[in-house]
Amino acid sequence: MLRLTELRLPLDHPPEELRQAICDRLGIGAEELEQFNVFKRGHDARRRSAIWFVYTVDCAVRDEAGVLARYRAEHPGNSHVQPAPDMAWHNPISNGAVLAATPGYKRPIVIGAGPCGFMAALILARMGLRPLLLERGKIVRERTVDTFALWRRAILTPESNVQFGEGGAGTFSDGKLYSQVRDPRFLGRKVLEEFVKAGAPEDILYLAHPHIGTFRLVSMVEHIRHEVEQAGGDYRFEARVDDLLLNPATRKVEGVRLATGEVIEADHVVLAVGHSARDTFAMLQKQGVDMQAKPFSMGVRIEHPQSVIDVAQFGPSAGNDLLGAAEYRLVHHAANGRGVYSFCMCPGGTVVAATSEEGQVVTNGMSQYSRAERNANSGIVVELRPGEDYPDDPLAGMAFQRHWERQAFLAGGGDYRAPAQRVGDFLAGRPSTVLGDVVPSYKPGVTPTDLSTCLPDFVVEALREALPRFERKLRGFTMEDAVMTGVETRTSSPIRIPRGESGQSVNTPGLYPAGEGAGYAGGILSAAMDGIRMAEAVAQDMAGLPVTL
Ligand code: FAD
């Protein structure tokens, strides 16, 4: 196969033009092109009057070696035609089933059924190692009922909500599936292929910015559970891990204790608990597991009519179905030294209540696959620094989050409504008393107020400076009636649990800190990729092989 990159065609090109463009690029006749598939499709909207699709295509041609040699001779230094890389995932061990049948075999434990945990469990199960996945929350359909109870009736279930339960934090989300992380082994591709097998739309395999939407995510995580179970793994729900059992002399993991008191022995524990498992982080600190404070960000969610964003991004092509609802990505370096950036932008979506603790308000965003809701929303967040904004203690970032989430709860009225403010009022430094044409989507509702009461001063200052700069890049961004809702605090983990080259905690052998909670991922795709890596590390250790992360 050959991989062709940077094939550019106009937005409204007829489908057959792609085949012709491939032949033109390679200088071959139509009969020499045996087959092709689109590996990636993005768009270039830098000139709004002339938007282009940009393709990466894999194709099989007659006499591949000859075509490649001729292309290279005719285009020296041009790398847009290359042999397609091997993207297949290779099982690093061959004796998983034999190991699992050995008398005294201890199953690996995975804590957490988010993307990191369910992917780790899937890979361990496929390797024959019969993992046991322990999840504090409920099975996804029951969890959905609990999550909706907060949104519709202001009733929070602390163990079953947007953060906790089958599918993890990303289940009620936009399901964006792209990541900036280096991926030389194409683990991202492996994740996407597994997601498609489990019912995700096939276009996630080739769109440059794929997303699934929340509805499909729910059935996808169910399918993955069935796969894990069929391959010999098990899930247990409402099984919160409250303690680690460590060998007193070596600190080696010997098992876990559940909230019920039940003890489960294990030599290998993948810790994939996400960024909101605050009680679990406190337990890990008590157990002496090495942890560090990690920088994260906080701010607000902003909502605009999607049509305003579409026009700003696509000009005359706004509303074209081929482009879908427009996204944006904004960054500004404020004079107070803080980076301000858009985070987890959800086109055509809704702002959601994302707290997991009582008496707090946290925002985030989600959408359906169609991205057809009236508003676009995005976090607009400001960088925080441990040691400067709060003490440089591993758990201090968590306390900082809690403080501001509580302020937001109080500013919203103390009943899970969120504090909200019109952008015009925020920039003018006056509280909002009413909202305007942009109807906020946050449920169970918002209270117009002054957001500066629930944000640190330097965050307010950085936001006030950044918003007009964003207007220069995206016309309409500071429209008076755009709505800001607070507070957005769960942007990433405030903690890092360092691991060594074997994937294990640097001072607690047998513990594999993984995914977003441990500071090794920032999103669904990267968390799932990390889950594969940790499953491989566990398997290699069990098989007595050197670990290659
Ligand atoms: P999590 O998904 O947080 O999973 C951790 C799991 O561990 C949870 O199910 C939790 O219940 C369980 N757990 C915690 N403690 C224990 C314990 N002691 N015992 C047993 N179980 C435990 N990312 C994207 O890439 N794209 C998006 O569009 C996107 N949208 C988002 C929208 C929302 C509303 C939210 C909240 C997040 C969104 N994210 C998105 C972020 C994404 O969800 C996370 O990055 C990702 O889920 C992290 O995966 P994880 O497996 O590391 O942790």
TrEMBL record:
InterPro entries: FAD-bd (IPR002938), FAD-binding_protein (IPR028348), FAD-depend_C (IPR049516), FAD/NAD-bd_sf (IPR036188). Residues 488-507 are annotated as: Disordered. Gene3D superfamilies: 3.30.70.2700, FAD/NAD(P)-binding domain. Transmembrane segments: none annotated. It comes from the Bacteria. Residues 295-491 form the FAD-dependent protein C-terminal domain. One of its GO terms (molecular function) is FAD binding. Residues 109-136 form the FAD-binding domain. This is FAD-dependent oxidoreductase.
